[in-house]
Amino acid sequence: MLNLKEFLDDIKPIKYWHIKDTYYYQSEIGNHWFFKKFVTFYKNFLVDDSVVGSEAEEEVKKKFLSFCNTINDPNKKKEALNYFFNPTDFRKKLNIINFKEFNNLDGKEDVANNLYLLRLLGIGGQFYEKKKINNMLQNNKTMLEIYSNALILLKEGNKERKKNKIKITGASASASSILRDQVGPIRNYRQTFTLWGFLPNEEDGYELNEISELIYETDDELLIAALGDHQKFKMKLGRVEPELIYLKHLKKRNPENFFNKSEDFNDFEVLPSIALIEVLKELEKINQPYLNFDEYNFIINRLSPFNLKKAIELIKSIRANGWPKDFEKNNFGGNGDPKQLTNFCYGNNLKKGNKIFNEHAIIEYNDSKLKITDSVKFDYYYKFILIIKNYLSKKYKKLYEEFGEEFKRNLVVRIDSTSIDKNYIKKIKNYVNYKRERIQNFEDDPVSKWKNYTNKLDVTLLILTYTLNYCLINFEKIKKSPKNLKINLPKSLENKIEKTIFTTNIKQLVSAFLNKEADFDISKLLKSNYVEKLNEFNLEKLIKTSSTSEILDILKKQNKHNLVFFNDQIIRKRNINLMNFARLEREKSIIQGSYNNKINKLECDVCNKIVSDIKKLDCHHILPFEINGPDTLYNYSFVCKTCHNKFSHDPNHEKRVELINQLKLKNLINKKNYISMIKDKDLKKFHLDYLLNKKYIHYVQYLEFIKFFNEKIYRKQINSWNSKIGTSIKRWSRAMTTSKKKI
C-alpha cells in the first residue's frame, strides 16, 4: 500500500497541474456567456479594427440580440439581455468616443486597445485609482487625458488606502505602469483563453482560431457548451511551454532535494478534466462522493504519472488518519485557490452561482469541496466520459508521448536556470532527452505541435461533446422517449457538415449514453466528406461589370466563412473563384495584380516549360494551402503539374529550396508581396516562422517582417518601422554573414 507520508515528503514545489490562476468564466451567468461577449467585442474592435459608430456597432447589437432571442426560457432570456447589453447598451444610440479619437497618445496603442475593450466589457476598476480611471473611460476621456492624470489618481487612491488602513502601493509607479496594471484583467483573460486554446497565441496578433470563430458565429447555446467541453476535455498535462513551470517556489530551496532521480521528472500523463470525474466516481463507490480542495492540491495534481488507484488510496488514508502533523502545506506551492480546479470542471455539468442556470448540474464546488449533486445523471455522464477518454487516448497517443518528453526536458531546462552545481545539472540531463536532435522541419517542433493541437477543432470530439451536453439538457425527455429525438443542426454548421451525417451520429451516441456503453466503437460514426467544387458563380459576368478592386472584395467576402468538416478535421475551402480570376488575369499578362510582360503567361513559373493552354498550368499557393497559406493574388504562381507535385509531395528539403529560388528569380516571391499580405492580415506569425524555416526568407528579413507585423497587426510600438540598415519596402535586406542564429 502507498505510504502517505512518503508521498507527501516527495512533493515537488514546482510540479503540479498548472495552466493559469484566472477563471475563464463568470459563475453568475450562463454557460460560456462571458467568452461569447468577450470574443464578440474582441473580433469587432481588435481583430477587425473597427470603430464604434461604424457598422461594428450594428454588428455587435445583431450578434447579441440574435443569441439572446434563441433562449426560450423567459428568465434566462432576461438575464442574457441584461448581461450582454450592460454596461454598453448597443440597442440604444450610443454616446461613446470612437477608438481613433480615444487613441490620441503615440506609442501606447496596445494599452489603448485593452483599455477600450475594458470599457466595453465593463470589468475591472472597482477600487481606488482603478475605479477613477474606469470612470474616466465611461465619461469618454481620451488616452492622453487618462495618461496625464494617472499619477494624480494614484496619489488620491493612496490617500483612501491610508484612510482605510490598507498598504499604500505604487511608490515608484509611472503613468505607463499604472495603465498597464489597469488593463491587467484583459491581459489575464487573453492569456487564459490562449492557454486553453480558445484564442490563438498572442504572438499571432489579434486573431481568432477555429474554436473562437465558431463561438463567435453561433447563436446556439448547446454548440457553445460543446465547444467549451471540447477544449476542457482536450487539455492535457503536462504541457510543453517551459514558462508554465514556475520557479518561485524552488529558488528558495536546493533543487537537489526534490529532483535527484529519473522518476522525479515523470510527466503527469493526464487529461485533468476527465481524471477529476473518474476520481469523484471512485469516491462515490465508497459512499464519499466529494473531493476536498487540499486532497486535490496535494494529492491529485501531484501524481506523476497520474494513477487513479494510487489517488484513491492516498485520499482514503487521509480521511482515515488525517494529514501528517509535520506536513506544512504552505511549503509546497501548488494552487492556493480553486480557480484551476473549477476551470477543469466548468460547463453545463457544474453548478453556478445563479440558480436559474443550475437545472442540468450534476456536480458543484462549495465550501472547499467538489461533490456530486445528482448521482443518477452523474453515472450516465461518467460512462460517456470514458468514451471520450478512450477516443482521445487512442487518437493522440503518440502526440501525448511527445508532449510528455518535452515536459521532462523543460523541467531540466528550468532547473538548470536556477542551479550553479554543474555536476548536478550534468547528472539530471542524463535522465531526459535533453540533447534532442535538431528539429529540421517547422512542423516537428513540439511547441508548434502543441499550438496546433490546442487551436484545432477535432470534429469527432465536438460531436461527442455536443451529444454529452444534449443528453444533460434533455435527460428526462430522452429517458422517456429515446426514439423520438429532436435534433437540430446548428445554423452555424449548415455549410460545414451534412445534416444527415450530424443527426445520425448524434442519435448513435445518445443511444450509447442511455445504454452506458463506455466501450462504444467510435468507428461506427459516419465521417464527414467534403468534395471541393466550384460554386455556381458567373465570374466572367462579374469581370464585365466590376473593377478589379470590387472583384477582389466580392471574392474575398464570398469565401469569408470557408471552413468545412472533413473526417476528424475542420478544413479550409480553397477560393476557387479567386484562383480562376488570377488565371484570367494572367491571360492579360497581369501577374499578382500588376502588369508584367517579362513572364510568359504560358510558361511554368518554375521550370519554364511551355504549355499549349493556360488551363494546363496549376494555380499553386506559394505559402502552402495546407498550412493555411492565404488565398490572395500575392500568394499565387502558375506551375506545371510536375513542379506542382514536387512542391506538394517531394520531401527533399534542398530540392524544395531550388524550386523556391526559381520563384524568387522571377520576383514572384518578394518583400513587397509579404508586406502587403501582413497589412491585409493574410499572414500570421507562424507563417513567418514557416517562411524562415523553409528558406523562403533569411533571418534578417524575418526580423524585419516580425517587427512590421508587431507594429501593424498587434499594434505594439517598437520605435519606428524605418529599417536601421536602410532598406526600402521594395528591396530585400541582405543577410549578415556573421548571423549564426539557430532556428
**Cα separation of the termini:** 48 Å
Average pLDDT works out at 87
Q: Would you tell me the structural class of the helices and strands?
A: mainly alpha
Q: What overall form do the CA principal axes indicate?
A: globular
User: Low-confidence segments, ≥5 residues, pLDDT <50?
Assistant: 718-729, 736-743
Helix content: 40-55%
**Share of β-strand residues:** under 5%
Number of helices: 31
Structure description:
This protein has 743 residues and is mainly alpha-helical. Among the domains are: 33-234, no CATH class; 459-524, no CATH class; 539-669, no CATH class; 670-743, no CATH class. The chain has helices at residues 4-9, 33-47, 55-69, 74-84, 99-102, 109-121, 128-138, 143-163, 175-182, 184-195, 210-217, 221-234, 272-285, 293-298, 308-321, 339-345, 375-395, 397-416, 422-429, 446-455, 459-473, 475-480, 499-514, 539-545, 548-558, 576-587, 641-649, 653-665, 671-679, 685-693, 699-712, and strands at residues 290-292, 363-366, 369-372, 563-566, 569-572, 590-591, 594-595, 618-621, 636-639. A three-stranded antiparallel sheet has the order 1-3-2. A two-stranded antiparallel ribbon has the order 4-5. It has a two-stranded antiparallel ribbon with strand order 6-7. The longest helix is centred in the first third of the chain and has 21 residues, at 143-163. The radius of gyration is 28 Å and the shape is globular.
